[in-house]
Give the backbone structure.
Amino acid sequence: MRRFDDEDLTGAEFRECDLSGARLVGVVMQNVEIDGLVTNLTVNGVEVMPYVEAELDRRHPVRLLIRSDEPDDLRKAWRQLVDDWATTVGRVRSMPVGSEHQGVDGEWSMVETLRHLVFVHDSWFRRCVLGLTEPFTAVGLASPFVPDQEALGLDQSARPSLDEVLVVRDRQASELEAWLAEVTPERLAEPAPVPDDDRWPPYAKGRRVRQCLGTVLNEEWEHHGFCMRDLDKLSRLGVV
């Protein structure tokens, strides 16, 4: 355990850090932004996450559909996610040239975000829901902590255009939509047919089909929010 006493951390940035069990006592926190997997967060004696989750559900009702076990709800969620991304693609096309390749505050650009979702689809839908073992899509973008990326078939030197990535995304969307059109509650409740090998994601073994599908839908929603946030910042900054 590391302890910080009387430290000035003004403007500090913690990225990809595990702060589980951290205690912040007698601190001054003003104009602070927290983005990540946060549970059981107590502020001044109040557990705040139920309020945060309820507010997120109010602002984004699609979250309720994403958490549902009903196939009709999941189909509605997917259609809304696809529509939201289509709207955002239209927005970035109306912005200055190159906006789709511009990152903010060290985050992925829009194109990189879409490439990551290509990787998510290959990982959690094609492998874990369909049980396929074929190579990952080369333009997919994995997080830095994913091991053996070249062995997975990822081209780490790839620099595709927005349109090139959208071709892949459209193909994947059609694949998922066709599967959702026929899925039943019984199929969702089955054990996920994760291939018996050590390829990514190894921790999916033992999960249900519904859980793996949920990962895909959650990633789509969360990364769309990140993308919208950063496009808003680009517009305010006028840097592109």
Observations:
- The helical segments are 49-59, 62-67, 71-93, 110-127, 149-152, 162-182, 185-189, 209-237.
- The longest strand covers residues 42-43.
- Strands lie at 42-43, 46-47.
- The chain has a mean pLDDT of 94.
